[in-house]
Design a protein that fits this description.
With about 500 residues, the chain is of the alpha+beta class. It has 15 helices and 6 strands.
Length: about 500
Amino acid sequence: MDGLYEQLRIALHQVWRRRWLALGVAWGLCLVGWLVVALIPNSYESKARVFVQLQSILPTQVGITAADRQNDITRIKQTLTSTDNLEKVVRRTELNNLVATKRDLAVQVDALRKAIKVTAQQDNLFEISATASISGFSNGQNAKLAAGIVQNLLDLFVEANLSGDRDEASESLTFLDEQLRRREQDLQAAEQRRVEFEQKYLGVLPGEGSIGSRMAAARAELSGVEQQMMQAQSSLVALRAQLGSTPPTLPGVAGADNGSVSSQVALLQAQLAQAAARGWTDAHPDVVALKAQIARLRPLAAREGPSGAAGMPNPAYVSLRGMLAEREAQVQATSVRKAQLDADLAQLSSKQATEPGVAAQQAQLNRDYDVLKRQYDKLLEDREQVRLRSDVQTKTAAIKFKVIDPPSAPRIPITPNRPILLTAILFAALAAGVGGAFVWGQLQTTFPTQSRLEAITGLPVLGSISEVVTDVVKARRRQHLLWLGGGAGALAGSYALLMAVEFWQRSTVA
């Protein structure tokens, strides 16, 4: 421990003896370092955050999905720092004062591209930041320039979406309108050819459409007519049988009320006839019940008197006669329609056999017209869909931009951090001065203590003589000490002055 203490005393003594060297080294390094820091231009940074809200209610109904919107946002982000946009930013800010030629503009655009950062954060947040460190500008101008760059980028961020959607929709609508005009002309020409063909072969090919399609439609209709005829004939047979078993009059005394058993039987038979007209079978529960009631009442009706007695007209018989006439007319109408369809099929088959070329030409004309009509309808539908999507995008604000944090007005430069750099240079210079004085002392062959002399020479040291300092020497040393303190104080004062200037400049930016 005593050895370490002795070594520390020797080192301090060496540095103190060469204190002017230490002070000179410290001054020189501080001047050089502080000058370099002063030449570094201040760089100011401005930031802003934007929230992009995706609306998915109405846009989804017209085919605009969230994935489409997310792709639009990614596209806007990638094209935001394009050369065209950066040229707009240069023209709108004070950077325009530095542009005299196209080459100057290109230089400013390249520098601006390096100074801008667009960062995508979570939850559809975007951070736009820009730095400004123009050497010819003051601190206030650089701070204002950084905020102006971010504000112009925000404006371009919004304009890129709105104008991009409008331009894209306008181009799509123009293209579809042009295609629709062409298809409409082709469709009109095809329709004119069809009209001319039909006028030329009006007596050869009756009806509309190709022969094959008309024959298929006629066969389908004939099958339905035949089925209707079979049902009508079956119903007609059932009605005739029912009419044969129904008496035309109801037995009973003239003027008597209609409550006799024969009247009840007649009413039940009328209900049974109506059920048969509806198509109910004998297994239907209502038909079974009606037949059971008729079978139960017939013996009672036979005991009431002869059927030839005076009575009233049977309403069931009258109803059955009306339904029978209706079914006969239906069977007659279906028979006529079937005969007409058979004649049309025969005529079409004959024309198909005798005029195959005309039929083929008509089929070709119909196919051409149908293809053009489908294309025209599809283009018309696409145009309306594009127009609707354009209206939704431009009028309902499917994407909404909200500035969460507006462009900040920087007051403190992000680089360089002059207070820390000035302080670091001061301490580094002091350390270098002390280190230089110590190293210089180590290089000189002097012996600061008696023990050091004894250790190096290996000879015993009998004693040492203290230095005798006169009053003149003491006065001179005090003067030198004052000069040393003044030099160190001047160094500290220079540091304090530089710090004061730095904070004063920051206050002027605000």
